[in-house]
Amino acid sequence: MKRYISALAASAAIALLAATPALADELRTPETITTFDNAMPTGVTVSAKGRIFVNYPRWGDDVPFTVAEVVDGKAVAFPDAEFNKADPKNPAASLISVQSVVVDPRDRLWILDTAAPGFQTPIAGGPKLVAIDLQTNKIIKTIVFPSNVILPSTYVNDVRFDLSKGTEGVAYVTDSSLTGPGGIIVLDLATGKATRRLSGHPSTSAEKDFVAEIDGVKMLARPSAGVAKPLHIASDGIAISHDGASLYFSSVSGRHMYSVPTDALRDESVSEAALGGMVRDLGLKGASDGLESDDKGRVYGGDYENHRIRMLESGKWHTIAEDPSIQWPDTLSVANDGHMYFIVNQLDRQPGFHEGKDLRVKPYKLLRIKVDGGPVLLK
Fold this sequence. Notes:
The protein is mostly beta strands. The protein is built from 4 helices and 28 strands. A 4-stranded antiparallel sheet has the order 1-28-27-26, with no helix packed on it. It has a 4-stranded antiparallel sheet with strand order 2-3-4-5, with no helix packed on it.
């Protein structure tokens, strides 16, 4: 137990002190990289060579392909159109509804498929991670999550990698359930073995009595017929420290970010009670969808209530970008070019929050800001 706490303390100290204070006080103006006129994207990632990939979950929009590469400003089905055709009868062999895409430290693209279109119960055998070799654009690995970690309420949301652990590395995945317990899934990339950690813990759950307010409007589930209800989205954003010692995570329905030692997460001999005791509350960051970290020990989060991007540096949260164009910042992705890319998709303006009226105004945007840091590469 002591070694986990010591590792956590050391990692936290490094993460909070290894910073560049001058940058924290600068507000950066978002730069538009490309726009999207059709379906609403949620995720973005950038390869070592600057290739940009995005994804579109099947939430109700017409989604002809759920993963795309941005080529000359246009989204093109990736790796091809055929693999993007959902086949519920053979869910492991096609993409059903992708929530996140992430390039790993070896420059492979990983696709996180919820297999839960419209937030329905996941299709059995469908929730999976798919790896694509970006040298050949071919699928090189498919890992279907074992049934012991996929609950009827599970919605796998985002993923981070540490390839230095085990024989092929480990993935950490958030479960951002709307109706059941949140949690973190730890997946061995070599064996496919997975465990649920912090399942239903307060840190992976929606904050009690939380109600977001955006542009003066409370964000509630407002169906066209029925009663408005609070929105409870569990653990969503996830990031890993530059030394791999800590995992950061937060719920959509909350304003706090938490951390936990990764050694303890991977160690099944550490009980859930003991693991919960190692979770640290890193303070009020603002309500965020995605999280990200960089190689200088800094952590980033959105603040969708206030059209901001925030950064944890030297133990304090700073606003580094604030602009009306930041209308629901979703996935954040630090790239080799010293910028952080992020999707803004007006998620809060969807029909389900406005009695069936779609208030989104196209186009959706992919923005970036300068951060003078690089991606975390644990390999």
